[in-house]
Amino acid sequence: MLDMNWIKDNQELVRNITAWKRVDFPLDELLEWDEKRRELRQDTEQLRAQRNGLTKEVERLLRQGDSVAGEAVKEQVRELNNRLNLYEAELTEADRRCGELMLLAPNPVSQDTPIGHDDKDNVELRRTGTLPEFGFKPRDHVELGELHNIIDIPRGVKAGGPRSYVLKGAGLLLHLAVQRLAIDVLTARGFTVMDVPVIVRPEALERTGFFPGGMDQTYELNGDNRWLVGTSEVSLVSLYSDEIVELDSPMRLAGMSACFRREVGSAGRDVRGLYRVHQFSKIEQVILCRNDEGVSEGMLQEILANAEHILQLLELPYRIMSVCIGDMSLKTHKQYDIETWMPSREAYGETHSASNLLDFQARRSGIRYRDADGKLQYCHTLNNTAVATPRILIPLLENHQLEDGSIYIPQALRKYMDGIERLELPHQQ
């Protein structure tokens, strides 16, 4: 949510952002309701002042024993109360409509955000790591999973429907190992790791900017007025809603959770394997910091570096993309994606997304802190994936496969895998 005065002072910019982000934000309707709200508030305050003045006049007349005049003034008070009730009802409706429309306002983007329409217009900033050169025909992660009996997609689909899967044996161990690696890295870097709710109230999704626009991507628990989160960012930010927090130093949080996404609109896309599934696990970084763009930009670079460090420990090649305005969500101010090399796709595939939201979420969530002068300010919030699995298993298995079908285990994961240096095919064990 943005400041209403800022919206009115920057209407042309807001219209441009709305068009580039392709969001449905009726700015003119909001401005009309806001003007009506201001008029109603002024009229209501005037009527209250008149009523209060006449009420005092009634008391004065009754003290003087002039009951006839007092009753006449009482009648005027009753008429003013009737009018006031109507004005207050209209004001309540105007406040409600403004509140609903404000939820649709897109966050402005940073000056260095690329202009573009979709992910094809994202700008590559740098690449890290060397792409593998196979002297044999490489297998994709599904074939490797079947060979090693660690991934079973048909049985997953039998139980859960399309975009479901089963990880078993060493597949499950790898799934857990990358999460443990991420937890250890973030803990060493000052993050508080939490296991947070994945079933949340709708207001948690609204306050973090996922509703109302993302309702079609979110699973609802019918009859309970509860929803399943697609990222623990929702829960982590909501833990501090309507609070005044201490921000002498940035608050570094990491959520460990299952995540659920409906993937509406992705029919026919990435249907093979583990790339686009309905249920997955993720370690998410979330930052709350002071309302200072220099500070939050520094935190964005920090959480991006954390994710890069984890990929380097996994010995995977990747690239950093600056996300263009047309590929951003309503809530995002600045975004980087990390794309990791996936040999079966002969391309980089997104595995991480780092975003700076400025005070967008904090305004919606009511999260404030006191600045050096003791004045209340809305904080800035940021988020980034540390690791999401099973998607990360795609590059992990494919990049580290060997000619005999075995799979190299990166050094950083071995302590979580009972010291195993590589996965051997069942007939080789």
Estimate the mean pLDDT confidence.
95
What helical percentage do the residues reach? Answer: 40-55%
Strand content: 15-25%
Q: Any idea what the radius of gyration is?
A: 28 Å
Which runs of at least 5 residues are low in confidence (pLDDT < 50)? none
Distance between the termini: 58 Å
Q: Sketch the major β-sheet.
A: 8 strands, mixed
Alpha-beta content class: alpha+beta
The number of distinct helices, counting runs of at least 4 residues, comes to 13
Number of strands: 15
The helix/strand order is HHHHEHHHEEHEEHEEHEEEHEEEHEHE
Any idea what the shape is?
elongated
Strand order of the largest sheet: 1-8-9-10-13-7-6-2
Give a short overview:
The protein has 429 residues and is α+β, with helices and mostly antiparallel strands. The protein has 13 helices and 15 strands.
How does this structure look, described?
This protein is an alpha+beta fold. 41% of the residues lie in helices and 19% in strands. The chain has 13 helices and 15 strands. The strands form four sheets. Strands 1-8-9-10-13-7-6-2 form an eight-stranded mixed β-sheet. Strands 3-5-4 form a three-stranded antiparallel β-sheet. A two-stranded antiparallel ribbon has the order 11-12. α5 packs across α12 and α7 packs antiparallel against α10. The longest helix is centred in the N-terminal third of the chain and has 37 residues. It is elongated, with a radius of gyration of 28 Å.
